[in-house]
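Can you make up a protein sequence with its backbone structure tokens?

===
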Amino acid sequence: MCSTVLAVVFGLYALFAPASALLALVFVFGFYAIMDGVAALVVGFRHRRTSHWGWHVAQGVVSLLAGIIALFWPGPTVLALVLIIAVWSIVLGVTEIVEAFQARRHGSSSWAWLLIAGIVGIIFGVVLIASPAAGALALLWVIGVFALVLGVVQIVWAFRLRRAAKAVATM
């Protein structure tokens, strides 16, 4: 229930204080990456006798660097995140368009939806690249709305589950 309340609080925070929420997300990522890096380094050095220990160490170093960069340079971190999402969206859009034409060739009735999704994905990615600051704000609003809706749905579900458990207990 605690995570549910936190989701609602963060959703509201993201919608009403987007700059602060974005900074908080960057810091959460930074601390997470540092902890992940330390854990990967520990695993790597503890398993030096295995053939893949070096990959754990490499992962640890990359995670530590990403975390430090996020904490000390949050602005460029936000920009990098927006650009990564933009490129991902464009690549995903292209693959969906290719898949749509293949689905059409095989007689699928849902090819148009794939085509539309691909076009929207490409447009979204291009808009993010063209205006990363507005894109970061839009992404934060999407995250905020998602967190808010998720939290409310989970709260409703929790009350329904409690009511069902009481009904079963009285049988």
